[in-house]
Amino acid sequence: MGLSRVRAVFFDLDNTLIDTAGASRRGMLEVIKLLQSKYHYKEEAEIICDKVQVKLSKECFHPYNICITDLRTSHWEEAIQETKGGAANRKLAEECYFLWKSTRLQHMTLAEDVKAMLTELRKEVRLLLLTNGDRQTQREKIEACACQSYFDAVVVGGEQREEKPAPSIFYYCCNLLGVQPGDCVMVGDTLETDIQGGLNAGLKATVWINKNGIVPLKSSPVPHYIVSSVLELPALLQSIDRKVSMST
């Protein structure tokens, strides 16, 4: 870590600032209710949702080949057919997908204490939102949680040549804010992208949000700092700056 004060903080979005996983679970529950009440599915409803969740976790999206709506509708179509058999049912798949998506977006909110933290931090440092993912999907989340106004810049990986953990996207963010990598801190919940990316780019520090006390693999990237909540960040940044003051 360099001997300059923190000038900028890069935040991940999903499961760092908003509870994407929780919102997705709520969406799945609504689909289960739909399948059970309207279509009289029984245990198959949960099986279908479990299959879709697996497909989402393994998703490889290439925007030049297919749009995200078609891809994710296909996840539902395949899961329904794998579970129920028979002919593909695209109409039902679309109904499930759009219910899951709309419910998920409704529950993607910035908590009031997170808003307050961002507002106070921005008085002292530049803030940038750096999120991986498909352009349409991530922009819809950003709009749903109304977070853009809390940041000096927003960068979506799906709009760039490379995503986290590639150093290039971090250098792009630095250029946007007029800072050097050694001035910046990356905050996120994913070791393989947020933390590894910050390390690759030579940022001043990386902060891993480990809400559930996960024990990482020995081969995982090692963050400079670990916190259980993003709300611990202001105190941590003060600690980092104090160390700089004592070293100069």
Task: Summarize this entry quickly.
The protein is α/β, with parallel strands linked by helices and 248 residues long. The protein has helices at 20-37, 44-57, 68-84, 90-106, 112-121, 135-145, 167-177, 191-200, 233-247; strands at 8-11, 126-131, 153-156, 184-188, 205-209, 225-227. It has two domains: 6-18 and 108-240, 3-Layer(aba) Sandwich (Rossmann fold); 19-105, Haloacid dehalogenase hydrolase-like domain (Four Helix Bundle (Hemerythrin (Met), subunit A), Up-down Bundle), CATH 1.20.120.
Write up this protein:
The chain is an alpha/beta fold and 248 residues long. It has 2 domains: 6-18 and 108-240, Rossmann fold (3-Layer(aba) Sandwich), CATH 3.40.50; 19-105, Four Helix Bundle (Hemerythrin (Met), subunit A) (Up-down Bundle), CATH 1.20.120. It contains 9 helices and 6 strands. Strands 3-2-1-4-5-6 form a 6-stranded parallel beta sheet, with helices on both faces. Helix 3 (68-84) packs across helix 4 (90-106). The chain is elongated, with a radius of gyration of 20 Å.
Per CATH, the architecture of the largest domain is: 3-Layer(aba) Sandwich
Strand order in space, largest sheet = 3-2-1-4-5-6
Task: Work out the helicity level.
Answer: 40-55%
Number of strands: 6
Structural class assignment: alpha/beta
Task: Let me know the average pLDDT.
Answer: 95
Which consecutive residue ranges, at least 5 long each, have pLDDT under 50? none
CATH class of the largest domain: Alpha Beta
Taken together, the total number of domains comes to: 2
Give the N-to-C terminal Cα separation.
Answer: 13 Å
Coarse morphology = elongated
What is the CATH homology-level superfamily of the largest domain?
HAD superfamily/HAD-like
The string of secondary-structure elements, in order, is EHHHHHEHEHEHEEH
Name the assembly state: single chain
**What is the third-level CATH name, the topology of the largest domain?**
Rossmann fold
Strand content: 5-15%
The rounded Rg comes to 20 Å
Question: Tell me about the biggest sheet?
Answer: 6 strands, parallel
